[in-house]
Model the fold of this input.
Amino acid sequence: MARPPAPPPKGRFAHALSSHAPLGCPSCHEPRPPGHEACVRCHAQSFEPVALATADRLGAFCAGCHQPRFVRTLPARFSHRLHMDRGRMEQQVGFHPACEDCHALAAAAPAQRSFATHEACARCHEQNASPHMTDCASCHDPAGVPAPVGRRFIRADLHFSHAAHEFDRVGRAIPCVGCHDHAADARTPEAIVAPAMTRCTQCHEDRRQSPQAARMSQCGLCHLLTTEGLAPRSHQLGTLAPDDHTLVFRRDHADSARAAGARCAQCHQGLSGSVRDSCQECHAVMRPRDHGVTWREQDHGLEAAAARARCVACHLADFCESCHSVPPRSHLPRAEWAIGHGRVARLELRACFACHTFEGRGSAPGCAACHARGIR
Amino acid sequence: MSAPELVLVLALALGLTPPAPVDLTVHDVPSRPVAPGLAMRNLHPAASGGAAASASAGTSSSAPSTGSAPNAAPARDEASPEIHYRFNVGYGTDNGRATGADAATGFRGDPQRTLLRTYLFGDATFGARGLPTPSLNSYFAAAYYYDFLGATADSPFTTVYDGAGDARALSIRSAYAEYDPAMRGGLPVWVRAGRQFRLGAGTAHFDGASLGYDDRQLEVSGFVGRRVALYVDERTGPLGGGAVRVNLGRALGVPLRVAAEVLTFEGDLYTDLTVQLASGRLSALASARLFDQSLSDAFVKARLALTRRTTIFTDLSQKLGVAPVYDYVSGGEAGGLKFFTLPDLVRSTRARLGAALDATSELEIMAYGAATAVYGTRADAGPDRTGFDASSVELGAFCDLRPGGGMSLLGGYRVRRAVRPPRDEQPRLDDPQSAGDISYQELLADARYSLGPRRLTVTASGFLRYSEMQTPLAHPFSDVRAGLRFDIDTWVESRLRLKATYEVADPSPQLSPDVDTLQSVRVIIETVF
Done:
């Protein structure tokens, strides 16, 4: 006996097929969703028991609905940006919708938030908002919408609960835009991309927001099949820099570090974790890689001369003065320095003027004391 | 007075125009309508009933959906307090080889002399959140350095602690307690007392108290205390200041923030004014620094994401006057520094323009060009300009490759050419602006392999630096330095970390002919909780 086909996944019907397009939406979508009875009107022979019994697998006709296709019928003309425009919405319908007004927790799978259904749209578009619900083409492109390409979920292995992400560890509400930060600006469905994994990592590796049992190292928390092994880089914080720590970020990270909710302390341990301490504490314990073994005696002067602002990020003026208050080793033995200093000055006169002036200043003698008439 | 009222009062006090009246009425989402002609809505009563229940259960447009989560997080009272500490013990040893050649001064050094320097170093931090009472945080951070042999005057391995005589120091950087009820959902007012840093118009490190109001729209804070002197600058006079930051995004509909920060120390007043724009693709910041009400610095920077893969950035800084005392470039008489006479750059312009391309998700390339023009005079006595403030042009490019599998490769090259007057036929000591580097090139590479967070990371890096120098007293000569560095960072177990670094580099053969093969080994054991 033939196995009855599973209900068709949403959006795999070939709306754009030339023979379907002229029919008009109501011919099938009254009632909705159309069941087999809508198809039977024209394709009765394909539903004959004989035809179904002899099919050892889904035939071409069945596969029209019951196999993945490249074209979906997601709304082609839906703008999150427009619907999240609070002022405009309040003018038009008297209130502004929140994310959960359309993306409710699904009744069939309470842990999941549903795609917006026609019911959600109808709350406004059945009444005073345009387009009206009967104007199908205002949202649905008859030619279909190309399925987004790029990042895709591992459907068979991944499970995610929106309901479990309503609040963080200490009870703070997690806003939708915390993960779907681009959704509110999306003008089309295709512009919506799934949240990057770094979003997950930032919270799940933050002990203030997630318990130990929810760390990214707990593969089974999200994956059904992949329960152990090395986490890919996108899942990592810690010894490897997060994906958003690009070269540009490293240059301009001060803005991020000062921002509310900065999470530098997750990886850069030893910090208080307060954005009020963002800069000094980090720069006090982390040494740039170019501060190597030759840095103090030879390299830092060139850099300080070229880009002093970089020094200021970590050092106060008296830090510099602490070293410069001690005669460098080139001045030793001090008794003979008066004889030998000229050779050093010939090579690096600029270094002399880090502590000395030509005229002399304070306890540091100047050149003019002896060289007022020039040099030999 | 409630928090919103306080915000409104402060906003009015600051002269801000209140935003247009907002409809604060809690509206209900229209219930599922009777939809003639769309009988589909009744087809799945369970589903539609659930959705309708969800919609009508109070997920109103202006109320957070806090009531429908089946497994909502524990109540705030159940949030456990946290203690974290880090303590590390580092042992380092630096050494070099005495070549037996004459020093740059022409003196013959002792080829048998000891260049070894061996020391303990590390830091300790301790933080607590919610202890002993909710909303109370505390933080302590200190660094220590102990040189077994004491300061050595002829060592090529100088430290900032040598000025203290024995090269041994314990520096308490932070030690404060903070009451912050906002972290428990209370008023966004905080108070902090103890040793703390404050970054604003200048970097203030002080023993004192801070008080602030801080929500998403408005930050107001003030502080007062006595300066902390960790090094040779022993001034410990009173200082104070404050800051106001306002987020105008809601009022103007533009993601704009403005800030004003002040710091006063020893009768001087430093002010920093900032305007910051941060939209999705554009980030821009303009700031001005004032010293005793005279403009000393202006700074503008911007970053624009042209596409998802391309970012351009630029910055422009203009120096117009004497900088605040906490600025490195203050120096001179104005800063009261006794030994360090790096001259003030009174007037200069520095501009930079660059771009970064995320060629693929594994490869990022960044290139930039920068130019510095110095056309001012020094504020203090001395030659009009010195070799430290030459105009220059710089180009650089960096490449970050992340091929996966835990590998990360970083390479970079930059070249800088200084604009200096040619040497006079008759060399003059009072013409030091012609002394310094004519050109400078640096090539660096960094390869990193990691098994993952808190496991094992191994890094190897190297550099090559080449510069051409000139002084009024000598013909141009070249200087080459090169070095290698290896790092291992591994977690022995979940709370114990071991880090080791080995460096080897050759110093300048021109300036340090008496030593070569400088080496350094550092081992750090760190415990974290």
